[in-house]
Amino acid sequence: MGLLVCNSSGNLETWKALLKERLSSKRFEHSLSVSQTASALAYRHGYDSSLAALAGLLHDYARDMSEEDLLDFAEANKLIGHPVERQVPVLLHGPVGAFLVREELGVCDREVIEAIAYHTTGAPGMSALAGIVYLADMIEPLRDFPGVAALRNLAENDLQSAILAGLDSAIGYCMDLGMLIHPISIEARNSLLIQKKDKPKEGCF
Ligand SMILES: [Fe+2]
Ligand SMILES: [Fe+2]
To answer: Which distant-in-sequence residues (6+ apart) come within 8 Å of 153 by Cβ?
Structure first.
C-alpha cells in the first residue's frame, strides 16, 4: 500500500477520462448517467451533490473485472463480507471497486467509499449518500424495467421510501428468478422498515 493522498475533491473530468479507458462504452455511459442522477437527487434532498456526482461516477470502477479476478482480489485483500459473495462474485465489484478507488485514485472520503462499496446490495444504516447512489444506479435514465417510472417519481419526493422500494424490487427480482440474495440487502430493508415511523412493525414468518 503506497502513501495515500486524499483526492475526494479531484477533478471529475480526470476521472471520466480514466473511466472511459477502463470501462466498456455502455458501462461508461451508465456511470455518467448515475453520476448525474445521484447529483440531482442529492441536490433535491439537501445533500452534497459534488460527493454524489463523484461516488456515482466511480461506483462501477471494478464492474468490468472478471468474476475470477474479483474473487481472487477480494480473497487476497480480505474483502469478503459474507460467503454468498464467493457464490456470486459479481457482488464483489462494490467492495473491490471501493478498495481500488481508494488505493489507486486516492479518493478517501469515507461516505464516497461506503457508497461505492454498498451500491449493489445496500446496507443497514448506510449513509444518505450511499442510499442516493444505490437508488441512482437503479433509476438513471438509461435503466428500463417494470416499475422504474414509479420509482423515479418516488425518488423525487421521498428518498427513504424510494430506497426501500428499490430494495424490494431488487430482492423480489432475485426471488422471482431463484437467485441467491445477499443477507445485507435484507438487513438494509429491515433497517429502513424499522426507521419508518408511520408503518406498523409486523414480522413475516
Ligand atoms: Fe454496479
Ligand atoms: Fe451501476
So the answer is: none
Cell output for 71:
474473487
Buried b (16+ CB within 10 A) or exposed e, 96-123: bbbbbbbeebebebebbbbbbbbbbbbb
Handedness of CA 174, 51, 25, 68 (dihedral sign): negative
Distances (CA, A) of 83 to 7, 45, 88, 94, 182: 32, 35, 9, 15, 9
Residues with CB under 5 A from ligand 2 (ion): 60, 137
Residue pLDDT, tens place only, 60-100? 999 999 999 999 999 999 999 999 999 999 999 999 999 99
Q: Which ligand is nearest to the CA of 97?
A: 1
Ligand 1 centroid vs 61 CA: distance in angstroms? 8
The CA distance from 160 to 189, in Å, is 11
Please provide residue 178's backbone torsions phi and psi, each rounded to the nearest 5 degrees: 70, 30
- pLDDT tens digit string along 24-48? 999 999 999 999 999 999 999 999 9
Q: How far apart are the C-alpha atoms of 110 and 204, rounded to whole Å? A: 35
Q: How far does the centroid of ligand 2 lie from the alpha carbon of residue 133, in Å?
A: 9
Alpha-carbon gap, residue 142 to 33, rounded angstroms? 7
What is the pTM for the complete model shown?
0.93
Q: How far is CA 195 from CA 107, 131, 158, 160, 192, in A?
A: 31, 14, 14, 9, 5
